[in-house]
Specification:
With 250 residues, this protein is an alpha/beta fold. It is built from 10 helices and 8 strands.
């Protein structure tokens, strides 16, 4: 029996490893909905002592080229130049990496990103928080107006699922598991990867439409409940039950 996390992974199992389609299925990872659930935004901001007073855009992930953070910063620079949203309109909170390391110990990608912020005049709009404890993430997700995942690839996209469970809309690249996880136009927006310009329109739309943010956030939380560990675990148990039944018949 082969079990994949997404239809894309299942396709790879079938084509690359000649898995038996009749003995294969898709069961996604789950999310702990008792931890990741919508928290009042003001309460969440107070809990994490957030200094971003305006609309909060959130990035959570490793600081490496694959995550596409440079593209997000370039997109926000375009938005600032367009003038649809003033300099005090939003801030981008980045969770991940070690931004306070010395220049010698800082990762090459973090150096590039900080240099890009300086080059584009975005230093005052991007807040690097470094790594944060898992138990604090629900507060960051709930405080954020949106989560952005501009990745070049994601096998599944657990960060997107956690944010959705907290009632936060997601703007994500149309890659890997994100293609199946984020419902374009309903729980967020899906855009081509590797293209900063493709991020501009959906980011602008969400930043300037509080009603849309609320609606998508509610739909995201509802959709994420389908991935609760209680439901996912039940599916996994059923797979093992069927396997045991077959073994007992032999």
């Amino acid at each position: 029996k082969s079990v994949a996390a997404t239809p894309a992974e299942m396709s790879q199992l079938l084509t690359l490893y000649n898995a038996d389609k009749k003995k294969s299925g898709v069961i996604p990872p789950g999310v702990e909905t008792s931890r990741f659930y919508p928290i009042n935004a003001d309460e969440a901001k107070e809990a994490i002592a957030l200094t971003c007073k305006k609309r909060m855009l959130l990035f959570v992930g490793r600081i490496e080229p694959l995550k596409g953070l440079q593209n997000l910063i370039r997109a926000l620079a375009v938005i600032r130049k367009q003038g649809h949203c003033g300099r005090d309109c939003y801030c981008l909170v980045v969770i991940g990496g070690d931004p306070d390391s010395s220049s010698e110990n800082m990762s090459s990608e973090m150096r590039k990103i900080k240099s890009l912020c300086k080059e584009l005049g975005m230093e005052d709009l991007v807040l690097f928080l470094g790594k944060r404890a898992q138990e604090t993430l629900p507060y960051y997700y709930s405080a954020a107006d949106m989560l952005i995942m501009p990745s070049y690839y994601e096998s599944f996209g657990m960060v997107a699922l956690e944010a959705m469970a907290c009632g936060t809309p997601v703007v994500a690249s149309d890659v890997g598991g994100l293609h199946y996880l984020v419902q374009d136009g309903k729980t967020g927006f899906v855009v081509p990867s590797g293209d900063p310009e493709a991020l501009v329109a959906p980011l602008n739309k969400l930043m300037n439409d509080a009603g849309l943010r609320e609606k998508m956030g509610q739909q995201a939380a509802k959709y994420a409940r389908k991935y609760s560990w209680e439901l996912i675990a039940d599916k996994i148990v059923k797979v093992y039950d069927k396997l045991l039944e077959r073994l007992e018949k032999k």
